[in-house]
Amino acid sequence: MDAPTLPPWEVYRALSPSEKAARLRGTDGRPYHVLFAQQFDRPFLDRLCELATRTRRIAKTKGGRLFLQSLLADRRAMLYFAQPSTRTFLSFYAACQILGLHPAEVRDTQTSSELKGESPEDSVRTFSSYFDLIIMRHPEGGFAERIAWLLSTTERAVPVINAGSGKDEHPTQALLDVYTLQRSFETRGGIEGKTVAFVGDLRRGRTVRSLAQVLSLYPGVRILFVAPPRLQIGQDILECLTAAGVPYELTEDFDAAVATADAVYMTRIQDEWDAPGERTAGEADRFAFGVRHLSILRPDAILMHPLPRRQEIAVEVDRDPRAMYWRQVRNGMWIRVALILTMFAREAEVHQYYDDLVR
Ligand code: NCD
User: Fold this and answer.
1) Rg (CA), the chain
2) 331: CB partners within 8 A, 6+ apart
3) Same domain, 251 and 279
4) How far is the CA of 283 from the centre of ligand 1 (A)?
5) Domain identity same for 188 and 310
6) Summary count for the chain: helices (H), strands (E)
């Protein structure tokens, strides 16, 4: 697939998210780069979830696994993670292995030429000389987007996936969260009309920011943002929701939110972002989900967390069938398999294999 031609940086950065999304599509209409949550639309999400489910069904047999491994065996991916990661890194790594895509990694910039003073931009440009896909996590907001733009000005433009950027976006986490919600509510009319409560550090939690935007694609969704005022969700997200007609509420009443929500999405305090002298650790302790909340949580509701957790959810809660966070971990691998397949335009073969399998 050919890379899209992007306008000069100053022009590009001034575009609205929907204008950017249109520009980021490849020649065949699919997203060439995956950089922020507003790039996704409903047909794309529905197709991706279906593809993930079919792929994991195919992977149940050895023949199926070998078929999947043949799909991208001629490609290589670079995982450039300049920020700590367990699940996102490993699920992308495993997703590459499932598809036969050869993964390489730089996780510690102290071991790369960045230590010699090379700019991250030059590092990524180097990766694009060797690899067919760059999956990257970076502490700087908007960095993946700038890199995607930069590569588009070179003769080695390769797709870029944002695996978490600064405090702003984590679009592939939103994909796995949507996949988890969709599977959980499959027999209850889907995500439409559900109430989702986000709890914790909403100001700096990029998973919440990305997922809240994606939820606006599901009619009837209502959002509760449960946080101390200092850690409440950014105005920019609220403006997006208002523009999309999504009703929301900012509250500190955790118990009431747990009692009404269809999905409670817990997050940790992101204190690595504390300004000098700022101390947010412990700020949201009163919003921890303990055993006592299991009796308040609706019987048909689910409890989510992007992980890592600290004390926001008591470990005793893990055994409850409504606890979905370990399923999220597994779903993350499969939705990333589906995403990579889609970016490399290999879904048709998977659908064909699946149809032959179930016939
Ligand atoms: C999150 C992240 O990195 O933004 N983790 C993840 O990718 N699952 C959440 C967090 O760090 O709290």
Assistant:
1) 20
2) 52, 176, 179, 180, 183
3) yes
4) 18
5) yes
6) 13, 9
Ligand 1: centre distance to CA 84 (Å): 9
| Residue ranges around ligand 1 (CB below 6 Å) | 87-88, 164, 170, 173, 206-207, 267-268, 270, 306-308
Active-site pick, 116, 279, 319, 359: 116
Q: Are residues 49 and 143 in the same domain?
A: yes
- Per-residue model confidence as pLDDT tens digits over 44-102: 999 999 999 999 999 999 999 999 999 999 999 999 999 989 999 999 999 999 999 99
Whether 21 and 130 share a structural domain: yes
8: buried, middle or exposed (CB in 10 Å: 19+, 13-18, 0-12)?
exposed
Ligand 1 atom nearest to CA at 267: 12
Place of tokens 């994909």: 175
Half-sphere exposure of 326 (CA within 13 A, CB side): 9
Distance 35 CA to ligand 1 centre (A): 16
Tokens of 231: 């850690």
Instruction: Choose the residue to mutate in 79, 81, 87, 88 for probing ligand 1, maximizing ligand atoms within 8 Å of C-beta.
Output: 88
Write down the mean pLDDT value for the chain: 95
Give the number of the atom of ligand 1 that is nearest the alpha carbon of residue 170.
Answer: 4
Q: How far is the CA of 267 from the centre of ligand 1 (A)?
A: 9
Kind and range of the H or E run holding 358: helix 347-358
Q: Is 170 a catalytic residue?
A: yes
Burial of 205 (0-12, 13-18, 19+ CB in 10 A): buried
| Global pTM exceeds 0.70 | yes
CA distance 165 to 206: 8
Nearest CA to ligand 1 atom 11: 308
116 is a catalytic site residue? yes
Say how far apart CA 171 and CA 138 lie, in whole Å: 13
Determine the Cα–Cα distance for residues 23 and 29; give it in Å rounded to an integer: 10
**CATH code (residue 242):** 3.40.50.1370
CA of 36 relative to ligand 1 center, distance in Å: 15
| 313-354 pLDDT per residue, tens | 999 999 999 999 999 999 999 999 999 999 999 999 999 999
